[in-house]
Amino acid sequence: MPAAPSKTFYLETFGCQMNVHDSEKVIGTLISQGYRQVSTVEDAGLILYNTCSIRDKAEQKVFHRLADYKKLQAQGKKFAVLGCVAQQEGEKIFERAPHVSMVCGSASYRNLPQMLVQIEAGKRATGLDDRETDECFETEFTSRSNPHRGYITIIEGCDKFCAYCVVPFTRGKERSRTSGSVLAEARQMADLGYSEIQLLGQNVNSYKDPAGKCSFAELLAAVAEVPGIKRVRFTTSHPRDFGPDIVQAIESVPTLCDHVHLPVQSGSTRVLDAMQRLYTREQYLERISWMKAAKREISITTDIIVGFPGETESEFQETLSLLDEVQYDGIFGFKFSPRPNTPALKLEDAIPDAEKARRLTALQEKQRDIQMRKNASNLGRVFEVMVEGKNEARAQWIGRTSQNKVMNFKAPNGAVPEVGVYVSVVTTATFPNSLAGEMVI
Q1: 116 & 155 share domain
Q2: Which 8-state DSSP code applies to residue 16?
Q3: For labelling, which of 256, 290, 309, 408 has a CA lying 20 to 30 Å from the CA of 315?
């Protein structure tokens, strides 16, 4: 079989929204260097994997995938491992998968053009910065996958060092972009027809403007006031850096979406301390109270880890009681899994996997009941919905409210709403994870 053209590439992305947006910028960089994106590995001369190391056994999955594609090396293809597993495993990837040509952590993406030249010359390229870099990955070449809703990374890295989390080791220290560069990108996106922007960061509200002009709340408001932008979201927030000024901004600027994702991880102060989360249950609930007292109804979602080493049954019950107290609009629940280089690796009192599974099921069942009741209160309400697509099988349009609730709706009288437009929808049915409705003409 003839070798694939060297200037074609296929990129597969795993993990969070940060990784998804990183891939958009990597794709744009590759295209700017004369590469063409293709939809299959068979057609690609360069195969890239943008990896995530948050989940258990992430590195094994990467090596299994690389082993699967080793046979393609004979066709002249080259391979690159990007992202968190690349940074975590480093040059060990070359040892275990000698057919790999490039290993590049996210803090080195700015060096991709030079690294591409190296691998084109038949050499190996390595980009493994230490966590002390002050540079962000800023590029004019971003290939956005959605023409209406897009991401802007405003801060990279993390300085919190939670006991269970590998991110500070794989993405480096916190480093923020200037408010001027963020606003310039937002204006550029508005000029291109984007109407919704989501600001991203491992700890997005830890943002510190290197130019000293904007706090995070002020930057939020400034992006939301860019002409042409109808919605601004942000994720993920850290409770330690979440201040009342963020709630005040949401109250005063209608373009800021009335949804906050505020990961708590546990309802027990002792477990939070063991996790090195830097706040107590009471301090977290204080931040919830700011949002509950807001003039706008703010949707609140969170992340929760069950089965952290040493978590007792009574401490798990504290997490369940937190769900009752907060009444979250949604949660992402996870079983604890030890990650490389993290302090939690050394903790004793491991929880059996069967017990973790039981706790996760109990957590999800309680939250399902809460969401059923909360969503039922939306029956008859009218929401502005951004149209995202159509479910042909159900003859329903798909959209999302400002509160980040999924709305599946029908358009009456044969109306065909365009993707990317905003329509009014009256809620006619509710479910644990979504709403259903009828478009108002």
Answers
A1: no
A2: S
A3: 290
Same domain, residue pair 296 and 319 = yes
Which of these, 114, 6, 102, 121, lies nearest to 49 by C-alpha position?
Answer: 102
- Round to whole Å and give the CA distance between 245 and 235: 16
401 Cβ contact list (under 8 Å, min separation 6): 383, 384, 385, 407, 435
Q: Which structural domain range is residue 55 located in?
A: 8-127
Q: What is the CA 185 to chain-centroid distance, rounded?
A: 19
**3-state SS class at 288:** helix
281: region left, alpha or beta (phi > 0 left; psi from -120 to 50 alpha): alpha
User: What is the model's pTM?
Assistant: 0.89
pLDDT in tens, 347-402: 888 999 999 999 999 999 999 999 999 999 999 999 999 999 999 999 999 999 99
* Residue 320 φ/ψ, nearest 5 degrees: -60, -40
Q: How far is CA 18 from CA 23, 105, 158, in A?
A: 9, 13, 13
Task: State whether residue 331 is helix, strand or coil.
Answer: strand
Residue 419, domain CATH: 2.40.50.140
